[in-house]
Design goal:
Two copies of one chain form a homodimer.
Chain A lengths: L2 H8 L3 H9 L6 E2 L5 E2 L3 H14 L4 H7 L16 H39 L8
The first copy, chain A, binds a DNA duplex through helix 2.
DNA sequence: CTTGACCATCACATCAATGTGAACGTTTCA
DNA sequence: TGAAACGTTCACATTGATGTGATGGTCAAG
């Protein structure tokens, strides 16, 4: 698969795929013509990267913890150094905190929308 | 309260507080000497802004939906235009999606950490 | 062979969030 | 009164994640 198809399948722009490569998050093969060649696994990989970026992790951290989250999970963590595990645990906790904040904000939005909706039916609100 | 204290109480740098003001997210009063004067409500306000930014909303969107989320909730939504409500609903849904992704990632991290921990106790892993 | 759809690199632009520092006024307190 | 701590504006710089466009190579189909 070349960059265009991967872009289509992941929703990440070509530019962004090249950026991830520049940041050493992925290392696609190159065809004889210089074209990047991605195999199936890159679809998940890209989605995972985007999820982690979305979680607020910077690329340099993602680069470190990504090997821990590789697809054939388990029986695979031979080279996880204690520091990497600590880093991973720290980031997970930070992520949990962020999730809490986000959930609170979403709930506040929902609450507001619900109030407005509730108020629009009985036909009385505003100054009441 | 002046900018230093607000900074201390919210964790946002003075610089950032001025930046939010520049982005029209907040409009603090000014004392006769030109100093910014913030009242208590700004503490929550700043935290809310940071939460929304953290949620991935750009400042220009936050500026629009923030009035909807104001502190004395309810009996306050007289000027919410239909477009604002639609925007708010859209953003809430996007936020929900993001939360799902984040939760999945956190769970993957936890799962990995749990596996490593489980494996370290029985004193056999790696090549097994 | 040419056209169109790909691909490549390079470079410039933007946006959010920050840092830094200059140059300067204010408040407080010993 | 003078120093320390705090405030102001302005401006330039950087970082991370992206967008956009220029310029040019590759390749398949008409």
């Amino acid at each position: 698969m070349r960059i265009g198809e991967l872009s289509r399948r992941t929703g990440a722009s070509r530019r962004l795929l090249r950026y991830y490569e520049e940041q050493a998050l992925i290392v696609p093969d190159r065809g004889p013509n210089g074209y990047r060649e991605y195999d199936e696994r890159y679809v998940d990989r890209i989605n995972q990267i985007r999820g982690l970026l979305d979680a607020g992790l910077p690329t340099r951290i993602i680069k470190q913890i990504l090997p821990c989250l590789d697809k054939p999970r388990s029986i695979h963590f031979p080279d996880a150094t204690p520091q990497m595990l600590a880093l991973l645990a720290t980031e997970r906790d930070r992520l949990s905190e962020r999730i809490d904040v986000l959930v609170r904000n979403r709930d506040a939005m929902s609450e507001y929308l619900a109030e407005v909706a509730r108020c629009r039916a009985p036909e009385d609100c505003g100054t009441q």
